[in-house]
Amino acid sequence: MQKTAHIIGAGISGLSAAVRLVNAGYDVHVHEATQQAGGRCRSYFDAATDLMIDNGNHLLLSGNRHALAYAASIGTEAGLVGPKRAQFPFVDLTTGQRWQLDLGDSRLPLWVFDEGRRVPDTGLFDYLALMPLIWASPAKLVGKAIPCEGTLYDRLVQPLLLAALNVDPPEGSAGLAGAVVRETLLAGGQACRPLIARDGLSAVLVEPAIKLLQGKGATIRFGHELREFGMSAGRVDALKFGDDTITVGPDDAVVLAVPPRPASSLLPGLKTPSKFRAIVNAHFRFDPPRDAPAILGVVGGLVEWLFAFPQRLSVTISNGDRLVDMPREELAQAIWRDVRTAAGVEGELPPWQIVRERRATFEATPEQNALRPGPVTNWKNLFLAGDWTDTGLPATIEGSVRSGDRAADLVLAGRLA
Ligand SMILES: Cc1cc2nc3c(=O)[nH]c(=O)nc-3n(C[C@H](O)[C@H](O)[C@H](O)COP(=O)(O)OP(=O)(O)OC[C@H]3O[C@@H](n4cnc5c(N)ncnc54)[C@H](O)[C@@H]3O)c2cc1C
Q1: Planar angle of CA 22, 392, 406, nearest 5 degrees
Q2: Residue pair 222/234 in contact by the 8 Å Cβ criterion
């Protein structure tokens, strides 16, 4: 008899679990509270710019192997595009200096030995000083593991770790930072090619998954918010959605793939991260110069990364809590000033949109990292997924997919017995 799995939440974690289970022959039912799949990784039509935009610019690296395998499983790996070599152009807004970090295409970080490819004004010993990060404990602070000052820090380590951890790097978990460094910088240029969903997050990472699921007979119900679990004899036996209740049979499995706050209210007593950080994105309707790089690292200003899309320049600012209450127009003007300098363009503020995701990620500090639960719960047929579960990585698409795959694998391994 075909086994059934209910997936609660249609973010990337839930979708990756659902795809894995439907491919393994399960009868899959996805329940999503909102009217749209994708969660924190989604696209929508924005009237202010008259463009389809993403809630936030999402950068993947070619070393994100679970994320790439997920994209391949839904047929959209080719939709993640980037340069052939791991090259990262940067500009420093305070000095006007521009440089390119060239990590090459090797499986080893050979670029650190080549002065021409390193960050300007840095030496080999600056890179060796980062070694303690590689195997650091998650309980250690980045600021206690490596020097958080100097040229290499300002021009590479700070931008990289700020983007990965979404906290000011010295207060971040050295273990989480180390995992990122091991899987990217230390794995050489072949693991560091920047990849973006040029046609939009939903078109590349979300809608094809929904299509595949539906094509294989899965159901996806939107506006179907789980309000309560029914539990008995150590198992989930009912899913209560307000207007309707679904019985969960003895052989059925449930994957809970919702953010920490709903997870902890659905499962009282569950330990979850409780502090979050914002990410601010600004989108400007403006044709990028023809030679604009797809991604430009920006230091010495408000803007951190500048993305060039067709008809749109778009900006990411991590650890953005200081900006969430700033008047929108003032913020748009301030960001546009940086964009003009960084992109070398002129003009008054074009049509714009600011998207402030207040709880973009859990706080990747040692304290909050210690609150991340694993996938197994006290209920035999209930498994957890989500970027905030204990994946060993910060809150990223790669971590989300890993968590979804892991929950699905536990279901498949018959942990229900
Ligand atoms: C602005 C921004 C920029 C980012 N940039 C990057 C980046 O560059 N690179 C990168 O790798 N990652 C990035 N991330 C992180 C990445 O988006 C997340 O790690 C990932 O999307 C989390 O997926 P998830 O499925 O774990 O959670 P979510 O996306 O939060 O999905 C959970 C889903 O559960 C649903 N739900 C909640 N409660 C219920 C309920 N009771 N019943 C049913 N459904 C429910 C929600 O509506 C949601 O759809 C960024 C995030 C943001 C916000």
Answers
A1: 15
A2: no
For residue 260 and ligand 1, the question of a CB distance below 6 A is answered with: no
CA distances from 203 to 43, 208, 284, 294 (A): 8, 7, 20, 18
CA of 329 to the centre of ligand 1 (A): 27
* pTM reported for the whole predicted model: 0.96
C-alpha of residue 102 to centroid of ligand 1, in Å: 31
**What is the token pair recorded at 277?**
């950080």
Burial of 115 (0-12, 13-18, 19+ CB in 10 A): exposed
Residue 153 to residue 174: CA distance in whole angstroms: 15
Contact status, residue 92 vs residue 121, Cβ threshold 8 Å? no
Cβ(136) to ligand 1 under 6 A? Answer: no
- Residue in the block written with tokens 């929508």: 44
CA–CA dist 193, 87 (Å, integer): 7
Q: Of all residues in the chain, what percent carry a pLDDT higher than 70?
A: 99
Contact 394, 166 (CB under 8 A): yes
330: left (phi over 0), alpha (psi -120 to 50) or beta: alpha
Distance (Å) of CA 363 to CA 104, 275, 318, 402: 32, 6, 12, 19
> How many angstroms separate the alpha carbon of residue 131 from the centre of ligand 1?
31
Closest CA to 208 of 415, 338, 355, 37: 37
Q: Tell me the pLDDT tens digit for each residue of 372-400.
A: 999 999 999 999 999 999 999 999 999 99
Query: How far is 169 from 122, CA to CA, in rounded Å?
Result: 19
